[in-house]
Specification:
Length: about 120
Amino acid sequence: MQSFNEIEEQLGYFIHNNSSIEALEDPYAYQHGVTVSWSKLQPNQAHMQKHVLADYLSLTALCSQILVNVKSGHYQEFVRSTEIVLSHIRQNTLLPDSTLEDVFNEIRREMDVQRGIMAYTYS
């Protein structure tokens, strides 16, 4: 659980201090509810992104292996949840009308799901 907390803290810093979003100009995107996208990261921001991504991937790979080993019925939910967080770390998706705080709140919710699955697995 401590590792999840540490990575969540890193993600909060990364999202709030090293990321930005910008309005889309594409009218097609507006028709589908997508109004913002991630701004291109500067080299130092991309370095931080890679570091946080590597830490998160290491943690979730270990957790996934544990869930597989114990034949958890929550494995697919865990995978779905990690995919959402990964999309925000990688910043490779378009976003609905969102702010950086909305994005971080979604990350926090998904990490709570992941912590809950792992806590349930060990209870």
